[in-house]
Amino acid sequence: MNTARLRVVLRDVEPTVARVIDVPASSSLPELHELLQAALGWTNSHLHQFVTPQATYGMVIPGEEMWPEDQRDETGWRLADLGTRFEYLYDFGDGWTHDIEVLGRGGPRPGCVDGHGACPPEDCGGPGGYAELLDVLADPTHPEHDRLRGWIGNRLRPFDLAATSQRVQWVVGEVPESVRLLLDLLADGVKLTPGGRLPRTVVRAMQAHRPQWYPLDRPVSTEDNLPALAALHELLRGVGLLRLQRAVLRPTKAAGDDLAVVRRIRSAFEPNGFGTEITEITLGVLASHGPLRMDELAARVHPLLSYGWQLDGRLIDERDVRMAIAQQSPILKGLDLIEHPDLYKWATGASALSLLPGATMLADIWINDR
């Protein structure tokens, strides 16, 4: 993978907070935002912008006025469009400004190669408020010391090179093993059944690799016996990683590029959509709490959802959450995001932290808040 090496320095903050990271050279600006959040240690709780001498790029929020008025929608732009020096602004209230320099080509894989300084806690008042906070924390006799020490908790974590590099790599993403298995099985092309389903040889090969997808100890005959496989088949065709041409199903060219595979799978999860939010919170809860029964899982997920989600004109309740998670379960299993350690409990799967950046971020926050 071609990477670019960036030096990121948080302006007007002492002790200095800096990171040197390798990111995919083809990163879009939304991807770069997520990578910077992971590298610095922010929690993606506020708006952001990329600023160059020529233009400002940011998120376009339907129904909201842009600032400045000529701000460009970051969606259609990439790291290469920003030049070799630019600013990354995060949280317009606190006003965190990051000075970023593109140093050149990076190493063979993304990650963090150097850095120092703890990331300031969110909502502490920007550089000035952070300086005051550090002064209070350093003075046990200050009347606000105990209160602010309790407010900080363990959020002021020392820089950890290995952990930061791992977070960056998770945000870049990895192809789930089940996806790669199916793409490899279809590499030479297969004819579908008259009903448009995968042939028995492919179904049983996937069952051999994922026996937990079928509760009974016997070979299955059709794709529909493995809901996780059926959901995975549908998703891969929907995002253009599989194509049916002249009655033969085979992987597209994009399926040979791991970064393209991850991007296309992520495109199936609508930003800010209900299904995406349910999925990300579910994975974050399971990663931070361990295996849970469905009733326990729904009880923890429900209060974490954004306020206002409705069903048939009423606010959703825990029963709705249980049904939503159950409806999502085939594709979550198909993407190795969840698994069942026993008949009654749900747990994170092998790809739970390396496919959806939102889930990775939530898991990291909640694990460190325990």
Please trace the helix and strand order, writing H or E for each element: EEHEEEEEEHHHHEHHEEHHEHEEHEEH
User: The biggest beta sheet, please?
Assistant: 8 strands, mixed
| Adjacency order of strands in the biggest sheet | 5-4-3-6-7-1-2-8
The gyration radius over C-alpha positions equals 23 Å
- What is the approximate shape? globular
Would you give the CATH topology of the largest domain?
Structural Genomics Hypothetical 15.5 Kd Protein In mrcA-pckA Intergenic Region, Chain A
Number of domains: 3
Task: Walk me through the structure.
- This is Plasmid pRiA4b ORF-3 family protein.
- InterPro entries: MM3350-like_sf, Plasmid_pRiA4b_Orf3-like.
- This protein has 370 residues and is α+β, with helices and mostly antiparallel strands.
- It folds into three domains: 3-119 and 157-172, MM3350-like (Structural Genomics Hypothetical 15.5 Kd Protein In mrcA-pckA Intergenic Region, Chain A); 177-267, Arc Repressor Mutant, subunit A; 274-368, Arc Repressor Mutant, subunit A (Orthogonal Bundle).
- It is 37% helix and 18% strand.
- It contains twelve helices and 16 strands.
- It starts with a strand and ends with a helix.
- The model has no long low-confidence stretch (mean pLDDT 93).
